[in-house]
Amino acid sequence: MPIHPTSVVDPAAELASDVVVGPLCYIGPGVRLGAGCRLVSQVSLLGNTTIGSHNVIWPHVTIGGDPQDLKFRGEDSLTVIGDHNQIRENVTIHKGTANGGNVTRIGDHNLLMVGAHVAHDCTLGSHVILANCALLAGHVLVEDHVTVSGGSAVHHFVTLGQHAFVGGMTRVVHDVPPFMILEGHDAHIRGVNVIGVERAGFAPKQITHLKEAYRLLFRGETSGSLADRLSILLADFPDDPAIATLVAFMRRKAEGLLGRHRETHRQDARHRRTVR
To answer: Each residue of 45-84: b (16+ CB within 10 Å) or e?
Structure first.
């Protein structure tokens, strides 16, 4: 296990035998690092942090630090990261809080680019890209295969649905439907994330269905309530799992508070406020 002599590894930390620790790193007592991980240099791993296998962590990254949350009272919370992630320079990932389930969780095969921030109690799925300086506030859920472009900022308790694409410099304050592109000032649904779903292997027929769903739901080409339009989609495409996923997501969003489904489940209801 090559550990550079300028790095500090607490004796209570647990490192797989082939972990590579470059210069000027700090690994605290509650840290566990899986097989094949590499810390390039000047990485700080703090708190109760578990990192899976074959992750590469680049200079000036801090993982497992205390959340930037005034309600945090030093509780014994966690940061859990999966396998095969690339975490680039100056990324910060904060541990969870008692108010959010005590864990910040990141899945597998993700790319977090320079300066990205993952706040307390966030959950990221797998195959997610956070581009340079993308910022996630607390309690954000990012489903699989989502891309958040550079300089975008995501409001707390927002959900980004699977295969969604957020354009650069976008302010995201409401849940973003799966398979769709959100972009602009103010942000609007601009269309289907065709490139993303094509790369994921969606059939041409499914992409056509999603385009029809976009026209029906987000361009107002059919009158009636949202519930009516969702029912139309299910009736028109009863055997398409992507349409079923989109409909279920939109129903949860509509039932949520302020356009954010996860707001409904937050514990600190007294802190809610309207976002216009």
So the answer is: bbbbbbbbbebebbbbbbbbbebebeebeeeebbbbbbbb
